[in-house]
Amino acid sequence: MNKEELIASANYTRYIPGKSGHYESFFVRANHPHKPLAFWIRYTICQPKEKPENAIGELWAIIFDGENDKHIALKAEYPISCCSFSKDDLNIVIGDAVLTPGALQGTITYNNSQNIQWDLTFTGNEEPVFLFPVKLYTTKLPKAKSLVGLPNALFNGIINVNGAIITVSNWVGSQNHNWGLKHTDHYAWGQVCGFDNEPDAFLEIATARIKLGPLWTPFMTPIVLRYKGKEYALNSLGETFCRAHFGYFYWDFNARSKDISLRGSIFALNKDFVCLPYYNPPGGIKYCLNTKIASCEIICKLGNEELALKTQNRCAFEILTDDADHGLSPIDTIVKNNSN
Fold this sequence. Notes:
Elements: H1 3-8, E1 22-31, E2 37-47, E3 56-65, E4 72-79, E5 83-85, E6 92-94, E7 97-100, E8 103-110, E9 114-123, E10 129-130, E11 144-161, E12 164-180, E13 186-193, E14 202-209, E15 211-212, E16 215-216, E17 223-227, E18 230-234, H2 237-240, E19 243-247, E20 250-256, E21 261-267, E22 274-279, E23 285-302, E24 305-321, E25 334-336
Parallel strand pairs: 4-25
Antiparallel strand pairs: 1-2, 1-12, 2-3, 3-4, 5-6, 6-7, 7-8, 8-9, 9-11, 10-11, 11-12, 13-14, 13-24, 14-17, 15-16, 17-18, 19-20, 20-21, 21-23, 22-23, 23-24
């Protein structure tokens, strides 16, 4: 598959019912232009390995409110018979919630006490961002693939949170797609859709390692930066073995290529995160420590030019781990819809 074919199929569903485990998610996220306020909405398939009859659709919605240190995270689960995922377009239905090119609507209500309802549109004209080299999207490794279907998308509409209306007016964010046989064993993921001092710049980064039998691979850190109309992809095998280190709840990294050198950091307080329990297709639970209001700073050198890209609270930052000793309790606002 060449790049043009991958661009055309960026949002095609890869799910094929069968005995192989599979997860696949399509999610959107965006930030308020100035406030530490963001949303994250995720439409997901999860098929357990060897148990295709237990496949489900998962619907997630989170509002991150850093001004009041109050985040609301809800999840609803549906039998796969209540879901549809298009093979040749972005056209997804989970229960009554939908995601189509340029629009999404849905509602999650938990115990008649908590409710998030959304009715949003999004627009944009940038090409997809591929975190990995194009050829790796059709190989067995990595087992988990990730791309940004629409970076720097512009969102408008309303979100109703327990009766309070949030007006989304020209919030900048992204539409994303990832899938695989299993979740990556251990990773940090980050994304910035517009820095405070460079609103058109875009960053996609991950630091990850996988387990091969009893052994761990070294951490690898693919990075893609778009700045002033040019893309800098530091994601070849040699370039991914850059220095990077993350923990609870910080991340430092540096990398270089023939065109660019950069060093940076991503940081948030533990109160900025929620802990999400992710089902892993081979079995067990992974913990996703998730915030969309982190800070990020990058110092780049482009030839003789040195620049700093900064954002105070517009950075997405996630950590996926098996570790339960991070100090955050997994959310328990999960609605299980068992009827077909």
